[in-house]
Design goal:
Layout lengths: L3 E5 L3 H12 L3 E6 L13 E3 L1 H6 L8 E5 L1 E5 L5 E5 L5 E4 L1 H14 L3 E4 L1 E9 L2 E9 L2 E6 L2 E4 L6 H5 L11 E10 L8 E5 L9 E8 L2 E9 L7 H11 L1 H7 L3 E11 L8 E2 L2 E3 L15 H20 L5 H31 L2 H10 L2 H8 L7 H7 L2 H12 L4
Parallel strand pairs: 1-2, 1-12, 2-8, 5-14, 12-19
Antiparallel strand pairs: 3-7, 4-7, 5-6, 9-10, 10-11, 13-16, 13-17, 14-15, 15-16, 18-19
Helix pairs in contact: 1-3, 1-7, 5-6, 7-8, 11-12
The structure holds flavin-adenine dinucleotide.
Length: 403
């Protein structure tokens, strides 16, 4: 079928890809195994303004629960570091409304959709993918298209079928567990709180995100494959025992429970094959330290959709032509992901006591710069502490050109 694109997945990546392709004149069908887009919620629900701004997609007003101006990070020994902008730099949203509204917009812009259709396979002609096989209403059905965009999330079937990636290994993902809570008594209602430490959350962090009206999204991500306790057990332990939780969440009540997994190993090396490309979590486009993925999914999705539509129009859907997508998104985020991945490795090797010392010398601004893969001026300050382990950490950061 000429100029027809199938988008598998109606999450932020899929809906953004659909909008990008529609804007460039393609015919689009979005396929999702869910019958209700946006449910269940598997998210901390924090989104910055930057990603949607770059993607030129407005954050749906009706999904916004609370504006946020920055963050408060607690080191393992509870040294806190704040960062706040004057104006809101992002929002805590209701993810079920957000996903559904983006999907609705793509539909209103002209996309067809098939909900409740699970993609089982892809079809090929002369080695080029040219369609998807779905199970819909209990029947197998084949949908033909010039390009298939795999926006099908962390367990992407399209990634496996195209050979672009096997399933993520336990080390590559964070296991997450979260509660939406009511009756919270938050100390800051416009900052996102993060808590680090091997006791609190090994190889990850706990988050407390304000949702307005005394509600919060409270969750944890821990390194996959940690066998001693589950993410839920770590979070429940935190809620009962940690000072920060006791101060703010003592009277809080759970109103929803969420589980999920996110890839923290950086993007796939290759995301295009003849007739198909991957985007969003399926492509590993998620920040290896913060675990934020919605903004990247929207930007990369928009690029993927446009490039797919242009390639389909020219009837040149080879991997070589789809490289344009890789080129464009890597130009925006490639270096940031690479640096963050290296920084993540370093942080994981750093003892709690050294993280406390680091928290004493960094500002919120430098944390923003570091997580964006940029260089910060903390070397001299660290040297002046005379702390051997902190100095070693700085030397490692210097090798990465981050200090
Ligand atoms: C607990 C948790 C907390 C998070 N917190 C944040 C946060 O606060 N901020 C942030 O920016 N990011 C956060 N993330 C990451 C963020 O949720 C993802 O990066 C984002 O959802 C990626 O969007 P996506 O469209 O690529 O994938 P998804 O949102 O996962 O969408 C994939 C879609 O594909 C569909 N699908 C899958 N397989 C098939 C198939 N075979 N056939 C048909 N359809 C299929 C699914 O039903 C789904 O609708 C968090 C993730 C988790 C797990």
């Amino acid at each position: 079928m000429t100029n027809h694109i199938i988008v598998v997945g109606a999450g932020p990546a899929g809906s953004s890809a659909a909008m990008g392709a529609l804007r460039a004149g393609a015919k689009v069908t979005i396929v999702d195994r869910k019958t209700n887009v946006g449910i269940p919620v598997q998210c901390g629900e924090a989104i910055g303004k930057t990603g949607p701004g770059v993607a030129e997609i407005e954050i749906p007003e009706e999904s916004i629960r609370a504006p946020v101006r920055g963050f408060r990070i607690y080191s393992p020994g509870q040294v806190s570091v704040d960062y706040a902008t004057k104006e809101p730099s992002g929002f805590i949203i209701d993810r079920r409304v957000f996903d559904k509204e983006l999907f609705a917009r793509a539909t209103e812009a002209g996309a067809d959709s098939l909900l409740g259709a699970r993609v089982l396979d892809v079809t090929r002609s002369n080695g080029t993918i040219d369609g998807a096989v779905v199970r819909y209403n209990g029947q197998r059905q084949t949908l033909k298209a010039q390009i298939v965009i795999g926006a099908d999330g962390v367990n992407s079937q399209i990634a496996r079928l195209t050979g672009l990636r096997k399933a993520y290994k336990p080390d590559d993902i964070d296991s997450c567990f979260a509660y939406e809570m009511a009756n919270c008594n938050l100390e800051v209602t416009d900052l996102m709180e993060f808590l680090l430490g091997s006791e609190v959350s090994p190889r990850g962090y706990i988050w407390i995100f304000p949702k307005g009206n005394g509600r919060a999204n409270v969750g944890i991500g821990i390194g996959g494959g940690i066998e001693t306790k589950t993410a839920k057990e770590y979070l429940d332990h935190f809620l009962k025992n940690h000072d920060v939780a006791k101060r703010q969440l003592n009277d809080a009540k759970v109103i929803e429970t969420r589980v999920g997994a996110l890839p923290v190993c950086g993007p796939n090396k290759v995301n295009v094959v003849n007739g198909a490309l991957l985007v969003g979590d399926a492509a590993g486009q998620i920040h290896p330290i913060t675990g934020g993925g919605m903004g990247y999914a929207m930007v990369c999705g928009s690029i993927a959709g446009r490039v797919a539509a242009e390639s389909a129009q020219k009837e040149t859907v080879t991997a070589t032509n789809l490289q344009q997508y890789e080129k464009e998104w890597r130009k925006l985020y490639g270096a940031e992901f690479d640096q963050s991945l290296r920084l993540r490795e370093l942080i994981l090797q750093t003892e709690d006591a050294t993280l406390d010392k680091l928290a004493n010398i960094v500002t919120g601004e430098s944390i923003v710069q570091l997580t964006a893969g940029k260089k910060v001026k903390i070397f001299m300050k660290a040297m002046s502490t005379g702390d051997r382990k902190l100095i070693t950490l700085m030397q490692e950061l210097r090798k990465l050109r981050m200090v």
